Amino acid sequence: MVRILCSVLCSFLATTICLTGAYGAAQHDLPPPVTKVLTHTWKVSPAWKTSTYTFHKEEFINPRIVEEMQGPLADSGSQLISVNVQNANISNQFFSEVRVRSTTPTPYVYYQEDNKEFGYSFVGATTTGIQIVHTQSTQGGSGVYHNLLFFIFTDTDAISFGLEVVPVTQPTLTLIGTLPLGDRFTGTISLADDTLTVLPPKESAQPLPLYSGGIILQFK
Fold this sequence. Notes:
- Keywords: Signal.
- The protein is α+β, with helices and mostly antiparallel strands.
- 17% of the residues lie in helices and 38% in strands.
- It is built from 3 helices and 11 strands; from the N terminus they run αβαβαβββββββββ.
- The protein has helices at 2-27, 63-70, 85-88; strands at 34-38, 82-83, 99-101, 108-113, 116-125, 131-138, 145-160, 166-183, 188-192, 195-199, 215-219.
- Strand 6 and strand 7 form a beta hairpin.
- It starts with a helix and ends with a strand.
């Protein structure tokens, strides 16, 4: 009887180990990253490098502005895509206490309100002036939702009303794209030589929502 029990137990353990190993292998079985080439020239303001408000140094662009441009998690597609960042950054509409956490390689800029937090870190800029920003947002639950946002600074035509009514040019921050990274993303993001590389974590099968094995995006 003891021998039978030992035999059954050994068989059970062997089966469990095999299944666990197979499951672990399946976890890491993601496809290779896809490579995409984006060829386009946006009308970027020549003053983008000297803008007063930036994503990577003081004075930081208020994270509440970035959150509003990203839009609610429940919605899809862009709604608010352009903001006069010079005015918005000092406005009551987008007011929040901007906090900065020292992180590598760039600081994490965020605000907190009750049980909610939203922040961003600067990934980098292409030679043509596309600003890439990694955002994180929580709504009080266990989820931490990550996105990559793509911005440009533009010069927008407007009208100035005063003693004279004249056309003017105002600096505008414009959202040109959003790449969702999913909940609790722990992969890697890098930008070098106008090539953006986004890869899922190696230690687990955590695919990206649109490109499960990752994406390599070349800006031409």
